[in-house]
Amino acid sequence: MTADNLFIAGATGHTGRELVRLASEAKLPTLAHVRPDSPKLDEWRDLFGSYGATVNDTPWNEEALRSSLRSLAPAIVFALLGTTRTRAKRESTTHGTTINYEAIDYGLTAMLFRAASTLPQPPRFVYLSSTGVPADEPQPSSYMHARWKVEQLLLAGPLPYTIVRPSFIAGPGRDEPRAGERVGALLIDGALSVAAVLGGRRLSRRYRSTTNTALATALLRIGRDPSMSRRIVESEDLR
Fold it and tell me: pLDDT, tens digit, for every residue of 119-135?
């Protein structure tokens, strides 16, 4: 196993691509996973290659993923996988398959975790969850339910894990506009500023929005810190 050899699943996402850039700048061997049927595969190869990272295009098939991870032997696996309602609706219509939080946010993350669990040298598994995931099974939010299921899988599984729970991820650079999320972040940040003045500093720190760069910086730091293994890291501890 190469020290700090990183495998980043969800590398093309808003936070994932920033993590690839920062890890490459830090001169860490970085494997950016991009699905082989991505229409922008060549573009991602060029972009990530310009950073100094290597694109891995293993298909989302458990046997293939297990074989690939055994060959690559990453020390840290980052799971930054997720979809949105808009993307799920579009891809389900285009490809005729079911794309939703259960299939992507839980299903692919669980597949990656199972594949990583078979490695002779267990990697650290860093999972990007969300603030507000409850201890008990949530209802009826399918988004929270998928994240709760992944967290339960990690808590009961064999790998050293770190669960990271950020609040809103704001800022420019998303492929899809999220007006509701931007407005929500602005409103919540404003309310939290008032709460902090009135004594709610901990509440303010937990739910205040962050940027993809700040989050990727924290993920890289936390993922490389052995003391953060088998920990749940809340939003206020990412700053």
Answer: 999 999 999 999 999 99
